[in-house]
Amino acid sequence: MANEHPTPTTARSLLSAIQKITPASKPLPGYENKIVSRFPMGMCMDECYPGLYIGDLGAAKNKDYLKQVGITHVVNTAQGNKFATVDTDEAYYKDVDIKYLGMKLLDIPTANIAQFFEAGADFIDEALTSGGKVLVHCFMGISRSATIACAFLMLKRRLGAQEALETLRKNRSIYPNDGFLNQLADLDNKLRKERGEL
């Protein structure tokens, strides 16, 4: 029986859902048959949804590694030259034929990440529907990148915010900041209203 009084999504409910999940321990993509430590290699990324990877600065800047894994598209959610940003752009990947989308965002609760939800979701969807693989990254691959990946799952795969975050968290230790969780909750409530669920 349908819930007669559905509850709006809140940042607190999303945070609670994330905290209940311990991510699976998996080999570094591209090294499935070898035991390698991610961090001494200076890069870390995980496949969190078929063809969708979330990763850090080290993975994003290692073009040879990205080609080895088969990455065709990169979304840099931390483009810039400030602290905790990643100084890549379209030209950086030109020689390896990787398509690029950059977002200038700081990992602070007041940052307006929602302005990039549609563009990020469209870019990721185009990558996956064309048979590609996409790396969505920020500095550590925890907050900005996870938020954009979550918005993609909500906008293009019709997952609720909680289900989307749980899908990602099962595969990587993601942790969007409180402001980003608020913006994901707002998106979730908007989509639920459009579907007649709220």
TrEMBL record:
Enzyme class, spelled out: hydrolase
Keywords recorded for this protein, A-Z: Hydrolase, Protein phosphatase
Residue span, Tyrosine specific protein phosphatases domain: 114-172
PROSITE patterns in alphabetical order: TYR_PHOSPHATASE_1, TYR_PHOSPHATASE_2, TYR_PHOSPHATASE_DUAL
Domain Tyrosine-protein phosphatase: 42-193
Active site: C138 (phosphocysteine intermediate)
Sample GO molecular function, one term: protein serine/threonine phosphatase activity
Cellular component terms per the entry's GO annotation: cytoplasm
SUPFAM superfamilies given in the database record: (Phosphotyrosine protein) phosphatases II (SSF52799)
SMART domains: DSPc
Task of the protein: Dual specificity phosphatase able to dephosphorylate phosphotyrosine, phosphoserine and phosphothreonine residues, with a preference for phosphotyrosine as a substrate.
Family that this chain belongs to: Belongs to the protein-tyrosine phosphatase family. Non-receptor class dual specificity subfamily.
Record protein name field: Dual specificity protein phosphatase
